[in-house]
Amino acid sequence: MDRLVNTVRPYAWGSTTAIPELLGIAPTGEPQAEMWMGAHPGAPSLTARGSLHELIDADPVRELGERSVEKFGPRLPFLLKVLAAGAPLSLQAHPDLAQARAGYAAEEVAGIPIDAPHRTYKDANHKPELICALTPFDGLCGFRAPTEAADAIAALGVDSLKPYVDLLHAHPEEAALREVLTALLTADPEETAHTVAEAAAAADRLGGDHAAYANLAHHFPGDPGVLAAMLLNRVRLQPGEALYLGAGVPHAYLDGLGVEIMANSDNVLRCGLTPKHIDVPELLRVVRFEPTDPNVLRPEASPTGEEVYDTPIDEFRLSRFVRPEGAAPTELTSPTPQILLAVAGRPTAGEATLAAGESVFVPAGEPIELAGTGTVFRATVVA
Question: Which residue of the set 75, 270, 320, 378 is catalytic?
Fold first, then answer.
C-alpha cells in the first residue's frame, strides 16, 4: 500500500476555497480545480517508491494484477479526481471506443502534433465519467425534450431566436436537435454574439430558471454555448448523488465539489463555453441527439456497508463507505488495483490513518482492511 501525494490542477474555472477546505489548509487565492489520483502521465500521483506511473510501468502485473492487465493493458485504466467547480466548465461530449480509435488513428496519419490546439483526439480511448457530489452540485446533462427547450428560448422574446424555436417544434426530435445545434455552432460569430447578449439580458430580467443562462453569458460573453446550454437538462445533485456520463452525452459542470472518476483518456469534443478549438463536424458525428432524463444515481448498499454506484463499464467501479463510530473493520483485498480516498473523519486503511483528502494506492492482491470512522471512496476495476 502506498500513500499518494497528488497534484492539484489550477484551471481557471476552479474554486479558490473548496479543495483547501476539504484538505484543511489555507487557500492560496488561486483557483484549485482538480486533484488527480492515479497514473496519468500528465500528473501522476507520487509515492515513497516513485511516481505511480513509473511503478506500474516497471511491473504492471505486480501493481495491477493479471486480470486488469489482460483486459485493459499495462496501465491503470481509471483516473480518480476531486473536482471543484467555481465557474462553469466547457460544454462537451466524449467519443465511444470505436470513434476514439478511428479519430486518433486518422489524426496520427495526418501528422497533427499531439499538442496542437486543433488536435481533437489525444489518445485512442473512450472517456466515460461518473461524478459524485460532495456538496450540492449543479450541472447540465443530456438533451431535454425539444419542446421544453423551445419554450425556454421563446420566453426570452428575442426575435433572432424565433427560427430556432420553430425548428425545435419539428419532428423527428433527433433531427430537430441536430439542426439547431448545427445552426448555433456554424452561425456568423458577430451575429451570434449579438444574439447571446440579447438573450443574456432577457434571461437576467426573467430570473428564476433562466438566471443560470445569464450567468453563463457573464462568464462567456457572446459564446454560442450559452444558447446550446438551453437545449440541455439542468441537474442539481445532492451530496452522495451521482451522474454517469456515457459516450455522446453533452454535458457541463457548473458549480460544486465532487469526486469524479473516468476512463484514463483526454478525449474531449467541445460544444461551447470555451475559447478552445471546437471541431464541429466531429462533434456532430459523436453527439447522440436524443432527449433523455438525467439518470441520477444513488448508491446501492451491500451487506458489508459498501455503497456501489452502478455503471455499465468496466474500466472503473466507484463505491463509498460511510463508517459510523464502532463499525467493524471491512476486508477490501482485491485481485485488481484500488485507490482509497477519505473525504471525512479519520478512517484507517491498513496501517495508514487518512485525513480528509488523503488517499492510498493498493496494488492488486495486497491485503487491506478499512477501519475507523469516516467516509471513504473506493475506486477499482471490474475485471
Answer: 270
